[in-house]
Amino acid sequence: MSTITQMQRGSIHDGSCPNFQGALELVGRRWTGSIIEAAAQGARRFGEYRGLIDGISDRLLAQRLKELEASGLLARTVVPSTPVQILYDLTPDGRSLVDALRPLAHWSAQRSVRNSG
Question: Is 8 inside any structural domain?
Fold first, then answer.
């Protein structure tokens, strides 16, 4: 059975819809995509994220890092050194989200080129 046929038979209000909507809302929050992409590029420390993401405030970066940690997309590690280091890494779910978002980023780039010409 094709995906379209399955979609026609199901309701947009079935059990998967709230999960999908929640994922879209999480990813669609201001700066979240940039933070996930920075993590995919290897950012681990707060300053590395801030350096890769132009225009984000420290307060908002800290808030988004906490949200992404709470949602299971980033893992926070405290390194007991002097000074203490806090590292953020993509979890397996975070890496799979990056993989899922790459086609969307590609589509967006292609669309932008078509619309600017």
Answer: no
